[in-house]
Design goal:
Blueprint: E1 12-13, E2 22-23, H1 33-43
The structure holds zinc ion.
Length: 52
């Protein structure tokens, strides 16, 4: 089984699971503009809500 995986830099897709949005060559992010915001909002907790 000689299966070659082509890594074409000019054809990158969003890393988000299930998303096949093709990224622009000028887009340095790993996600499309939609999921990029999803990832950011995940990583950044909303100003630490005070839950007491
Ligand atoms: Zn996406």
């Amino acid at each position: 089984m000689a299966k070659k995986i082509k890594l074409n830099r000019k054809h990158r897709v969003c890393r988000f699971t299930g998303c096949r949005h093709v990224l622009s060559i000028y887009n340095l992010q790993s996600y499309c503009h939609v999921h990029q915001q999803v990832i950011i909002s995940r990583d950044m907790p909303l100003m630490s809500l005070d839950k007491r």
